[in-house]
Fold this sequence. Notes:
Layout: E1 45-46, E2 48-50, E3 53-55, E4 62-67, E5 72-78, H1 82-98, H2 105-121, H3 123-134, H4 138-159, E6 172-174, E7 177-181, H5 187-201, E8 204-208, H6 215-227, E9 234-236, H7 241-249, E10 255-259, H8 262-272, E11 278-282, E12 288-291, H9 297-309, E13 321-325, H10 326-340, H11 361-376, E14 380-382, E15 398-401, H12 408-411, E16 418-424, H13 427-435, E17 442-446, H14 450-459, E18 464-467, E19 486-487, H15 492-497, E20 500-502
Parallel strand pairs: 1-5, 7-8, 7-10, 8-9, 10-11, 12-13, 12-17, 13-16, 15-16, 17-18
Antiparallel strand pairs: 2-3, 4-5, 6-20, 11-19, 14-15
Amino acid sequence: MPALTPEKKRPAARSAGRPLPELIFGDLWEYDPATETADPKLKPRYDLFIGGKFVAPASGKYFDSINPANETKLAEIAQANAADVDAAYAAAQKAFTTTWGKLPGKERAKYIYRLARLLQDRAREFAVAETMDGGKPIKESRDFDVPMAAAHFFYHAGWADKLDYVAPGRKVAPLGVVGQVIPWNFPLLMMAWKLAPALAMGNTIVIKPAETTSVTALKFAEIIQDAGLPPGTVNIVTGFGDTGAAVMNHPTAVKVAFTGSTEVGKIIMRSLAGTDKKMTMELGGKAANIVFDDAPLDQAVEGIVNGIFFNQGHVCCAGSRLLVHEPVAAAVLAKLKTRIRTLRVGDPLDKNTDIGAINSKEQLTRIEKLVAAGVKEGADLFQPACKLPAKGYYFRPTVFSGVSMSHRIAREEIFGPVLSVLTFRTLDEAVEKANNTAYGLSAGVWTDKGSRILKMSTELKAGVVWANTYNKFDPTSPFGGYKESGFGREGGRQGLLDYCKLI
Length: 503
């Protein structure tokens, strides 16, 4: 056997003291357009869905749903008033007392299972409609929103005939009619989050989608009809804040569930104070994504990007505050800037797009104001030099470094593709900075040490703590927050408890 000879020495990838070379992508990243062409099958006008039928609003008024990618009109949406909400609750109450509320769990499961299968059958159609309505990239609607919505219905269909195990040792019963209001960032998924557990438990529902993203909710009404749910089991009313207030405050509702901003959540809680209504509130967030010096940095950078730029940052649990261990702060920031330069901003229907359109003109204005405040307060702004479409509502991915806890961008929920970077020296400092917020919805921890993960998960005041990943969801896992991020849980066995009464 010949003697082993030493391998020819290769140049070190990271020579001590030498900065990493800057990657210049240039034209290498100019992809040809790959636009999704599936037909979303949109109607020019959508009425209210009450009692199993589409009915015209009592006021006769409609408003336009705008595509944020190009500012064109998608459809006209019915504007419900108090009389329409009354009719919806009357239909829901009738369905609860005569049909749906009397069905055994095994029979309810069949209907919920049908909803899931029908949504899967029309998945591409719904994905395109969701993207056109909300502005999110088609690959997110296609690969996450629609499949996860269907998964929630599948999961809760499985629970419907096993409700004796929701609260071991206790019997459960449905509450009755519930009122629900959902936000504009995940219209279809939030609808599934709300409808599936309520239906599985035997409740009937009046639900209001956000005024800027009502299309997929009303398209889902077609699936409800096709699945053959008893008329009035699910009723969909559309409109603005006054419609939502009527849904939340209606005397027929025995429980209300709201997902949206903390400000609106507080208004609802004040209006319902002193009543016996059950409430679930899933509100705002200002999550900390914490990177320790022993973390796998390349993996962490991908998690950071996904944590803040997923759905243009329109995520209540977005990792909008990055806390980095000082020894690796410079390296993480350099890697992050390099990665951000590769993100493609543009047409949401293009399968190459990473960051789509901001949901509305109003939200774009809010993002711009808070970014301007960050610059004014002295934080260091970084934005890649990418072209933005001439029409539509778009904003470049943004990173602020040199941020302190007193800056507005470190305290207020921006709800856009804006990341604030802070540093820490010790674990205790990281915990203190992470918890130094009015919110407590989620957090992320990046480290190689399991003991550190366990300690952080107990110290962080957050409803969800991800370890070495971010923005991972599952219908079997409960989701919800602490402090001003709300209360109650959605998903899992715990989410079912909020839609039943214990006997």
